[in-house]
Amino acid sequence: MLFLIETIHIYHTNDLHSHFEQWPKIVHYINKQREKHRQEHEEMFLFDIGDHMDRFHPISEASLGKMNIAFLNELKYDAVTIGNNEGITLPYEALDCLYEEATSDVIVANLYNSEGKIPIWAKPYQVYTTSSGIRLGVIGLTVYYQLFYELLGWEIRDPFEVIKEILKEISGQTDVIVLLSHLGINEDERLAELHDIDVILGGHTHHLLEEGKMINNSLVCGAGKYGMYIGHVELQIVTNTKAVITKRAEVIPTNDLVEESNSTKRTLQLAMEESEIMLGEQITVLKEDLVNNWFKESPLSQMLVETLKDWCEGEIAMINAGIILDSLSKGAISRKDIHRICPHPINPCNVWLKGDKLKEIILQAHTEQMENLRFKGLGFRGEVMGKMIYSGIEIESAKLSDGETHIRSIIINHEPLDHNRTYKISTIDMFTFGYLYPVIRDAKKKEFFMPELLRDLLINKFMDASL
């Protein structure tokens, strides 16, 4: 019997986060590979694994992500899934119309609308059939941020429960299963251990697997972040038996690519110019400079923390000065200016903590190590944490004989801190994730405000006041 082999090429991107610096190179490379595979009569698919959009960038902010979809259309993606930046940094209505002009399939199996149905613009899976009859079943899953989706009006379901049902549903309908997973590397590895999935293309945790990772029968892949790599998977399949005989993964560093698409560069330039016009709406006129300093109290950060306290109706408020990237000069102020100094997809929130836990946070925030901490993630798009700025909290400190500055007293709204009293603290949601402040992360009671981003509070403040 003659056995014929079909080669399938899968290219994938993830977590671009609107870092368009390498996008012209990506476009040129993918178009070149598409033509190469066409001439060699090989099948090719192109998928994006989510977080292509990030509202830190003016283009994405001005268009609420629609220009990102235009870029995906330009490159003729076969399918995309959504990440948390598409899913929970946009108001309900903005996400619901984000993909209305998408030319690719939008595959996400665990997101449901306010009526408990798969959104009209999405599908849980899609089966693609190659020229030789190989059936490629593609499933999409996005990260399970249940509370945040609920606050925005969506329903997000447990991906581990959803995929069990999808795999049952498509059993016998596919020869190869590919998962577009914006879940993170730990979840991808767990899925590989639990299910027979041929290829898992991952994102969310920005993991880079240069040659993939085989777990049982699954090839787990990840192409880093910010367009620094393009992922490539090559499958060889016996057309008669549909047996997959080869799975190979690699990543292509975009820094190593020389050629780029000039038309894409022009499109990006025009989109940037258009975004500046769209964000150019004047919101106020400053009578004097509003200065911000990352390492000491200053008028702009103090205004923000007081605005946060009022908005969230907290007893006290705290925010790191590094959340404001720059000062504002006197004169006309536009939405573009506010976005420039506060580009983060970060929401306000309240947490309830006892005084002893609050003291622990204040002591941690007061350290030189925390004030000088440089990091990216958790929504933070700045450079350094900076000094913690408070509203309703007064701290007395002194430099002692050891040469260090120590906190001597903490006053809460003119009263000494009560270790046993529970305080309602207004702050930012990035403190409720990860490792920065475990006490806030582990607080039992939290309240999040969505879809308002931190800069929306500033804009409302400027529009309501004469400054």
Compute the average pLDDT.
95
Low-confidence runs: none
Shape: elongated
Our measurement of the CA-to-CA distance between the termini, rounded to an integer number of angstroms, reads 83 Å
Assembly type: single chain
Task: Tell me the strand order in the biggest sheet.
Answer: 4-3-2-1-13-14
Q: Counting H and I runs of at least 4 residues, what is the number of helices?
A: 15
Q: Structural class from helices and strands? A: alpha/beta
Strand content: 25-35%
Taking the sheet with the most strands, its summary is: 6 strands, mixed
Helix content percent band: 25-40%
Give the number of DSSP strands.
24
Rounded to an integer, what's the Rg over CA atoms?
Answer: 25 Å
Could you explain the architecture of this structure?
- With 467 residues, the chain is α/β, with parallel strands linked by helices.
- It contains 15 helices and 24 strands.
- The protein has helices spanning 23-39, 58-63, 66-74, 84-88, 92-96, 146-152, 159-169, 185-194, 262-278, 299-312, 335-341, 355-365, 368-371, 438-441, 454-464, and strands spanning 5-13, 43-48, 79-80, 105-106, 111-112, 125-129, 135-142, 155-156, 176-182, 199-202, 208-215, 218-223, 229-238, 244-253, 282-286, 316-320, 331-334, 348-354, 388-391, 393-399, 405-412, 415-416, 422-428, 446-448.
- The chain has a six-stranded mixed beta sheet, with helices on one face. It has a six-stranded mixed beta sheet with strand order 6-7-9-10-12-11, with helices on one face. Strands 19-16-23-18-24 form a five-stranded mixed beta sheet, sandwiched between helices.
- The mean pLDDT is 95.
